[in-house]
Amino acid sequence: MDTLLDALQEGRLFELPENDKTHALQFLAHIIEAFPQIPTGTDIVGNVMAREASMNTALGKGWACPHARLEFEEDLMCVIGWSPTGIDYGSPDGKPISLITMYLVPSNQRNHYLREVSLLAKVISTSPEISKLASLKELNDVRNYLLDLIAASKETAGPDARARMIRLQAKSATVSQPVQDLSNLVVEALEIITSPGQKPLVLTQNQELLSYVEAISSLAEKLESDGFYQNGRWRIIRRNTAVYQGNRIVYDCLAISSK
User: Fold this and answer.
1) pLDDT in tens, 85-102
2) Rounded to whole angstroms, how far apart are CA atoms 130 and 166?
């Protein structure tokens, strides 16, 4: 389960914005599309959704494992999405899905992917800790839960693997916002507030991102219709939408770009 461990260490664990299966899959696929290793124009969203339409990827016990296969050579990678409320995923055991582990499977990594998913399925089916998943309330609790599962799968591992786990557990105690800890991406929180007859108000700590977003005249419309916007370096992904009195709308977003 090294790829899962890499995802945790590099901050690729996200709280899913909605409990809708389609939106959750699209959200994670958009994040993968923003990886700098992905060729420009690669349709990860379409790839994932087409595979899901042909075969449900729920593993049961609150887990699902969708993937996208690409004909290029790169490392096996994944992103992890957590739903606090659970997602109606059509799981064979009828239980809602709390964790979606979405893999990017390059052509040179298919055997590696099969080994990893086989081990993951074994851990899910045999670990007594799996039942705790539905009771987790915070993202850092999910992170520690996954670390415990990975550690259990590495009981026979050598000292190097155990040392890496110790370093990662120490790091988890100091990371208050895992989503911001990506090693190969810039991820910024972003809020866009729209009001009839007014220019959208953009809230972000990143000056470059602020200038970029304020220059987009149709951003709110694109977020409403497509759930994301990209034209250049930044990819803006809608996480949630809240409607207030006076037809004021707040779009809670992530902005992702490569360094």
Assistant:
1) 999 999 988 999 999 999
2) 21
Do residues 187 and 256 lie in contact, with contact meaning Cβ atoms separated by under 8 Å?
A: yes
Phi then psi for residue 216, to 5 deg, are: -95, 110
**What's the whole-model pTM score?**
0.73
Looking at the structure, do residues 98 and 215 belong to the same domain, yes or no?
no
The DSSP result for 79-107, as a single string, is EEEEEEEEE----TT-PPEEEEEEEEEEG
- Domain of residue 47 covers 2-178
Domain count, the chain: 2
Q: Which of 137, 153, 178 is the last residue of a domain?
A: 178
CA 188 – CA 202 distance, rounded (Å)? 13
User: Cβ contacts of residue 163 below 8 Å, gap of 6+?
Assistant: none
258 pLDDT band (50/70/90 cuts)? low
- CATH number, domain of 249, equals 3.30.1660
Which of the listed residues 151, 178, 205 is the one where a domain comes to its end? 178
Sequence-distant (6+) residues with CB within 8 A of 187 are 11, 179, 180, 254, 255, 256
